[in-house]
Amino acid sequence: MSIALFTLILVTVWGACVGSFLNVVIYRVPEGMSVVSPPSRCPGCEKKLAIYDNVPVLGWLWLRGRCRYCKMKISVQYPLVEAATALLFGGVTYAYYFTGLREVFTLPGIGDTWAVLAVHLVLIAMMVGATMIDAKLYIIPLSLPWVATAVAAVVLPVSVAVGWTVTASQASVVTTGQLLDDYAANGYFSLLGVWLTFDTLLPFADGVGTGAALGGTLGLVLSIVLLRLKVLKLSFADEIPLPEGADPDDPNLILAHPHPRREVMKEVVFLIAPTLGILIGGYAGYRLSGGGAAMPSPWLSAVGGVLLGYLFGGGIVWATRILGTLGFGKEAMGLGDVHLLAAIGAVIGWRDTTLVFFIAPFFGIVAAVLMAGIAALVKGKVRVIPYGPYLCGAAVVVMLWRTPIWGVIFP
Prior knowledge:
Blueprint: H1 3-28, H2 58-62, H3 77-98, H4 114-137, H5 143-161, E1 174-175, E2 178-179, H6 191-197, H7 207-228, H8 260-270, H9 272-288, H10 298-328, H11 335-348, H12 350-378, H13 388-409
Antiparallel strand pairs: 1-2
Helix pairs in contact: 1-3, 1-4, 3-4, 4-5, 4-11, 4-13, 5-10, 5-11, 7-9, 7-10, 10-11, 10-12, 11-12, 11-13, 12-13
């Protein structure tokens, strides 16, 4: 067995183990429980599960879907999440290293790309957890996208700073049959050349983009501080009386706020500082980079790329939420979706996040048709469709097929 094949199998098995942990996250995080303590146990008899009962997928099979002690039924969700996570981990790794879909990962001299792959796998794990929770409870715990964002913000710039992402002065890089010999003045990958071939390994930003990202991030921090100090007001924070006879567990109640337009204007005020920060930072970056001609150092360019992706991903959904709420008089989308696409943007960059945003509605349309058909069949109604799973599905599509998609858009 080759080392490459062994590594692929190892990553797939690791994905199953991560899926086992995600089952804990899916159950405990919405309840505000620790994901570490207490150890895994049966929710019925509360007996601690043996190690061999926790083997991903296989444990559920040899227990025949029931607790060893009290015979309580174990949801089929557990093996399905474990198997899905394993397939996603293995599938992404295979696409990156064994096919031409993301050939930049395997180009000679490109350097060690495992750090970048690890960040992508963290994002996938987060999206699996967010998808399951959003589908069941119509919420996305913000701690999930925060973890993926933090990992990207630390690991990706460090991977550049320590030389895991090789500079153009160290290797000639051929992507999709084209030699990228358009080097930047300071000797690393010409960002223009990489962008034109749509094969970036990780998100980068030029001088203007880096300045805008840093300024916008400082503005965001300022708004958060003002919110904590209660100078700014939190939107949709007031408790509202339930309609008479309403089911308190009905997810459609999120649409029942009597003053949605007034509440969403609080979010507009919150976004003033980040918006000004982007404008001021972008202008400063333009001036400092000599009109955008000079690039920042590679690691700073990576920092700018991550932050710019975060701000763009969150901003495009937040703008949709605000405009939709003002236009329709109902709370449009959720803040969990804002944080979710922001985390996706931090990992894959703002350009690919644009694709995610425009592809996600197609997932939503197909799901809406299917759900409407099921509702008609069972004489029920479907009013609220969680959008998080569609963003996640679109993100996976872009991560795998970004090169051919961009090739169709810019032939």
